[in-house]
Write a structure and sequence with these properties.
The chain is an alpha/beta fold and 329 residues long. It folds into 2 domains: 3-175 and 215-240, NAD(P)-binding Rossmann-like Domain (Rossmann fold, 3-Layer(aba) Sandwich), CATH 3.40.50; 181-213 and 245-273 and 291-327, UDP-galactose 4-epimerase, domain 1 (Alpha-Beta Complex). The chain has 12 helices and 13 strands. It has a 7-stranded parallel beta sheet with strand order 3-2-1-4-5-6-11, sandwiched between helices. It has a two-stranded parallel sheet with strand order 7-10. The protein has a two-stranded parallel sheet with strand order 8-13. The longest helix is centred in the first third of the chain and has 22 residues, at 90-111. The radius of gyration is 19 Å and the shape is globular.
């Protein structure tokens, strides 16, 4: 039986990865401090003896090191996300996303793990020059979250280079699906829209809604992590996207509801669109879930977002004031 360790394993993407690993016969250790992850995301594995859930902060090196003993594959997904809080509290983001990553890669190195797969972010590209965007595009982080995730990636790749730790970094585009975050911060569009729909509030569409995003379904992303770990690839960076890009207006059409428009924000690209040729070639990975199928799956599970905060234009204006203050040219 292979053994895997998943940081942030009670979170959105990572909990689906845990599902995949257990389905494939792994014994899994989850490290999570539950700052954003939810134990509920793993409750269906409650009586599974092949899952060990540990509450711990990943930047506490001495505390996490023992759990890496005998581990084959490490999946590092623990991180603080969202733009606004990273602008307001950059220290917390550096501690979690950079110092935390240092602890994880060093523990992996000392424990002789066979592969470490890092959840990087496509936000490292900032506002790119071309679409679809290749891995060779210039990195231009626009805000602290993007920067700290990119610095974490550089740590992972450096440990691969210097210590020959087998690593793969997956730059995730706009991941969506069941169990996406319901935290109190203003963040990902799906969580905002689903809470608004449940409460019969209009969707707060940024700008005119023609901006597009490379929405990729969470189970497809979990499969990419699994395939990366079980491949011969190492010291590689790969985009993970849907192979398409979809407008926010199209999302609103699928979700069905009234719309109110709010000001366009600085530092956000008009388009995110992954060039996925590399991951298709190296891993033979391709997405299986269409955008329409994915949105239907979310609507079938919409009650999950009942506890999420409901954002109005006025609340968003207050929450994003630092965004406009610091990122406006």
């Amino acid at each position: 039986m292979k053994k895997a360790l998943v940081t942030g394993g009670a979170g959105f993407i990572a909990s689906h990865l845990v599902d995949k690993l257990i389905e494939e016969g792994y014994s899994v250790v989850v490290l999570d401090n539950f700052s954003t992850g939810r134990l509920e995301n793993l409750s269906h594995h409650r009586n599974n003896e092949n899952l060990n859930i540990v509450k711990v902060d990943i930047f506490s090196f001495d505390e996490i090191l023992p759990y890496f003993k005998g581990i084959d594959h490490v999946f590092h997904l623990a991180a603080l996300a969202d733009i606004v809080p990273s602008i307001v509290n950059p220290l917390d983001y550096y501690k979690s996303n950079v110092d935390g990553t240092f602890s994880v890669v060093e523990a992996a190195r000392l424990s002789g793990v066979k592969k470490l797969v890092y959840a990087a972010s496509s936000s490292c590209y900032g506002i790119p020059d071309g679409y679809p965007t290749q891995e060779t595009a210039e990195t231009r982080p626009q805000y602290p979250y993007a920067l700290t995730k990119y610095l974490g990636e550089q740590l992972v790749l450096h440990w691969g280079q210097v210590y020959k730790l087998p690593v793969v970094s997956l730059r995730l585009f706009n991941v969506y699906g069941p169990r996406s975050r319901t935290s109190g911060t203003y963040g990902a569009v799906f969580g905002v829209f689903l809470a608004q729909k449940l409460n019969n509030k209009p969707f707060t569409v940024v700008g005119d809604g023609t901006q597009t995003r490379d929405f990729v379904f969470v189970t497809d992303v979990a499969n990419a992590f699994f395939m990366a770990a079980n491949s011969n690839c190492q010291q590689e960076v790969m985009n993970v996207g849907s192979g398409n890009t979809y407008s926010v207006n199209r999302l609103v059409e699928l979700l069905k509801g009234e719309v109110v428009y709010i000001p366009k924000r600085p530092g956000e690209p008009d388009c995110t669109f992954a060039d996925t040729a590399k991951i298709k070639k190296l891993l033979r990975w391709s997405p299986k879930v269409s955008f329409e199928q994915g949105v239907k799956s979310i609507l079938d599970n919409i009650e999950y977002w009942r506890a999420a905060p409901v954002w109005t234009p006025e609340k968003i204006e207050t929450a994003t004031k630092d965004w406009f203050r610091y990122l406006s040219k």
